[in-house]
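Lab channel / #folding
Pinned by the channel admin:
"Please post every new chain as: sequence first, then the structure tokens as a reply. Keep commentary short and put observations after the output so the thread stays searchable."

First post following the new format, from NK:
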Amino acid sequence: MSAALLLSRFPNDFCDALAERLEIVGPHDQDASIALPLADREKIRVVMTMGTVKCGAGLIAALPNLGLICNYGSGFEGTDHAAAAARGIVVTNSPSGNASAVADLAMGLLLAACRRIVAADRFVREGRWNGQNSSAARMPLVRGLSGRKLGIFGLGEIGERVARRAEAFEMTVAYHNRSRRPGDRYAYHDTLASLADWADVLVVAARADAGNRHIVSRDVMRALGPDGIVINIARGSLLDEVALAELIKSGELAAAGLDVFEHEPNVPEALTSLDNVVLAPHIAGGTYEAHTTLKSMVLANIDAFLAGRPVPTPVVLKAPLTPVTG
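Reply from TO:
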């Protein structure tokens, strides 16, 4: 029986469905998978992986009958696409499966950071909301969202949904991509620096690879100004966390909302110590609806591959991707 190699842990019901189609090997990380006996490696036709999980040239070379690398989710930066292409191996992802869920959390983080919801919750729980004065006098006034300018770095499936939600909050939207999207109604900035200089809020929704680490730099974030807010629901490697913490601590940036971190699950103390940084443990795609869609999309790709049909959602790179090696 042909096998599927798991490079990460996946939901139990998904693994049950996968086991109806293929023998399950793993989960093993890349290095442990390369060390498997040749007889086990020869059975593997499908690799199941996700986002930042490394599926490199060494593993691809070690699996002589590999034909499909399936990413559970929209990310695929951990895969060596050049090595896969050289072998004729198809790489797939689930490009819109969790986009709405991620966009929802982006707006939730923005609201929490802007309106200091976490601090307000503590204010009530700690019994500081008392006396004759109003709560507004006891907590500092903040700027709202209506009328503010939101810049989206990466107007893909997720970024588009963030834009629509931001418009409902009466915000003005602009974006930066590698190139302008034809026919798009949002203002386009040809550099990230220009977008940050224009915006009050920067939402990071771009794809990450080894070539754009810390592209959301100190200078980019400083350009947002002392009332600026940064929201990251993409990948932690895109943002310079040290610079972010220093800018907020010095008052050069107002707040941030982060669902992703460069060295997950480790979060720098410089961030956890700041009251005006809202932190979440990479949960943006964590809804029942999103995972139901992801499972269906992945299984559809596997079924098509096993039947010899074109897969529904192949990864088509618009530019060369430098794989993440960490």
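NK: The mean pLDDT is 94.
TO: also worth noting, The radius of gyration is 22 Å.
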